[in-house]
Amino acid sequence: MIRVAILGYGNIGRAAEQAIQSSPDMELAGVFHHNDCMNCIDADVVLVCTPTREVQKFATLLAARGICTVDSFDIHGQIWSLRSAMDTVCKTGKAVSIISAGWDPGSDSMVRALLMALAPKGLTYTNFGPGRSMGHTVAAKAVQGVKNALSMTIPLGTGIHRRMVYIELEQGADFKEVEAAILKDDYFAHDETHVIAVDSVDALNNVAHGVNLVRNGVSGETHNQRFEFNMAINNPALTGQVMVSCARAAIRLKERGEYGAKTMIELAPIDLLPGTTEELVRALV
Amino acid sequence: MIRVAILGYGNIGRAAEQAIQSSPDMELAGVFHHNDCMNCIDADVVLVCTPTREVQKFATLLAARGICTVDSFDIHGQIWSLRSAMDTVCKTGKAVSIISAGWDPGSDSMVRALLMALAPKGLTYTNFGPGRSMGHTVAAKAVQGVKNALSMTIPLGTGIHRRMVYIELEQGADFKEVEAAILKDDYFAHDETHVIAVDSVDALNNVAHGVNLVRNGVSGETHNQRFEFNMAINNPALTGQVMVSCARAAIRLKERGEYGAKTMIELAPIDLLPGTTEELVRALV
Question: Which of A61, A95, A253, A285 is 20 to 30 A from B34 via CA?
């Protein structure tokens, strides 16, 4: 049995706990507050379910001690930097870290890479939502004067999105100042963003999300090869499940001595699944 | 540059040639008739584009001499047996063979494995077509009394398919005998199959094909997670491209000393693509 610990117990930590309990080859090694990070060192692998900007600190502490980690770090522009830093730590500590293991970045990245291999020339568009962006919601909540927030992602086609940010203000907070702070945050600065004050964010809350990932490309010299991947999912449940499946991959890589940090496009799908190679090839190929 | 040879020059061999010519990191090492198999040993990797039932013979000859091979062997029930046999040959010969590298088995298998990791409980249905099945068409053509054939796959939903087999008879052939021979062939015996005599198969021919791969499953304890993968493609063009992308993966694995036979679910998507890890992580994750 793979002993899996959870560090951080928000939406994703709770969903990951359920995914561990549902896995035939895993047992829960504990759920820890990030202040108790070092209690995780009993585990084979730790799911770092802290806010994304604290992932590197905790993953580094654990991987340096040979503990595998999985995170769902979701700031696209900083993934290579995280991978580089964690790769060094992991190779020294003889650990494996699977980074940015959610659905995007994560499983969508695997689909994008596969579609590129099927039709190397062409355009891929990843259209998100409608649905709550967990990263954007956390970023909006972190703005001073915001009591509660919900950031909805609205697909406008060809990979363009609108952000609808619903906020409850702290008493005495100035809407215009809060709005300006949100609009200049790196999470929001590049998209059309609307900030709307509401009485109750709870009344709007729904963790449903979706993706429509489209590629029209060229295989060899043949044009108009069309591919589409759609999901309509509970967001934290999927993220938690992806992290748990990647925990299994981390252990497989460690057992093979393949220490280092990996993103999901660097993983073979078979390593995400319980069972023997023969069982999985017979069932899935 | 990776030197890639093609063994067998039918629909897939021709499409593979175009995919090699379009690849920035490859050059064509030659196109060979299967009688000249040993002329391929100058290549780094050979695409075995012979009929599926001759794949193992040629792949074995090459891999035993340390030449990597890629095939699109498509008899689902015999894939594990091919993998086992080729794995032994490859480990002795220090080669890598990627087997069953088409779109199904092949890239669809990767999608099925990924969806299983995203929602471990539930049902996946792979619905093919409408489109010509190359494997089934070759099998129908091989039946005595058949001058030309086209086997169309018609999706009936929930993974159930009808086979519409259009045949031109050889002069003097008996339709009822030919029909009986087709219906008992292992390619057709398990599906609803209709054999129809026509004057001209050429008049019907179209290499378009498609897939609708659907999974509704459970992530952790959360039900109703919905996933769908659709393609509408030129069939030999996609198969040729997949084989060429897998040729790249074969060389990567060989360079890392990971000798043996692999199906596509055992490959990381990144290994299918040209470019460095940094370039690909930055572009696709």
Answer: A285
Task: Kindly report, residue by residue over B195-217, the tens digit of the pLDDT.
Answer: 999 999 999 989 999 999 999 99
What CATH number corresponds to the domain at position B167?
A: 3.30.360.10
- Tell which of A219, A252, A274 closes a domain: A219
**A153 plus A192 within the same structural domain:** yes
Q: What's the token pair of residue A73?
A: 């770090």
Q: Tell me whether residue B274 is in a domain.
A: yes
Asked if A15 and A154 sit in the same domain, the reply is no
Give the contacts of A54 (CB within 8 A, at least 6 positions apart): A34
Residues of B in contact with A233 (CB under 8 A): 219, 225-227
B276 touches chain A (CB under 8 A): no
Residues near B208 by beta carbon (within 8 Å), at least 6 away in sequence: B131, B132, B232, B233, B234, B235
Contact (Cβ atoms closer than 8 angstroms) between residue A125 and residue A213: yes
* CA A15/CA B33 separation, integer angstroms: 55
CB contact under 8 A, A219 and B229: no
Structural domain harbouring A202: 121-219
Q: Which residue of B has its CA nearest to A78?
A: B282
Answer yes or no: is A57 within a domain: yes
Give the tens place of pLDDT for each residue, B213-252.
Answer: 999 999 999 999 999 999 999 999 999 999 999 999 999 9
Is the CB of B233 less than 8 angstroms away from the CB of A226? Answer: yes
pLDDT in tens, chain B (285 residues): 999 999 999 999 999 999 999 999 999 999 999 888 888 889 999 999 999 999 999 999 999 999 999 999 999 899 999 999 999 999 999 999 999 999 999 999 999 999 999 999 999 999 999 998 878 999 999 999 999 999 999 999 999 999 999 999 999 999 999 999 999 999 999 999 999 999 999 999 899 999 999 999 999 999 999 999 999 999 999 999 999 999 999 999 999 999 999 999 999 999 999 999 999 999 999
Contacts of B277 in chain A (CB under 8 A): 266
Same domain for B84 and B9? yes
Q: Return d(Cα B268, Cα B114) in angstroms, integer.
A: 11
| Chain A contact for B11 (CB, 8 A cutoff) | no
pTM attached to this predicted model: 0.93
Sorted by sequence, the CB contacts under 8 Å of residue B32 that are 6+ apart come out as B5, B6, B7, B8, B39, B40
* Of the candidates B88, B57, B21, B32, the residue with the CA atom closest to the CA atom of residue B240: B21
Count of domains observed in chain B:
2
B73 and B13 part of one domain: yes
Chain A nearest-CA distance from B164, in A, is 24
Q: Per the CB < 8 Å rule, is A238 touching B225? A: yes
Contact state of B284 with A113 under an 8 Å Cβ cutoff: yes
pLDDT tens for residues A12-69?
A: 999 999 999 999 999 999 999 988 888 888 999 999 999 999 999 999 999 999 999 9
In this structure, the answer to whether residues B211 and B243 fall within a common structural domain is no
CB contact (8 A) between residue B268 and residue A266: yes
- Nearest in space to A167 (alpha carbons), one of A144, A151, A183: A151
Q: Are residues B157 and B244 in the same domain?
A: no
Of B176, B191, B219, the residue at which a domain comes to its end is B219
Query: Does one domain contain both B64 and B24?
Result: yes
A 173-232 residues with CB < 8 A to B:
218-222, 224-232
Q: Considering the domain boundaries, does residue A225 fall inside one?
A: no
**Residue B227 falls inside a structural domain:** no
The answer on B177 and B142 residing in a single domain is yes
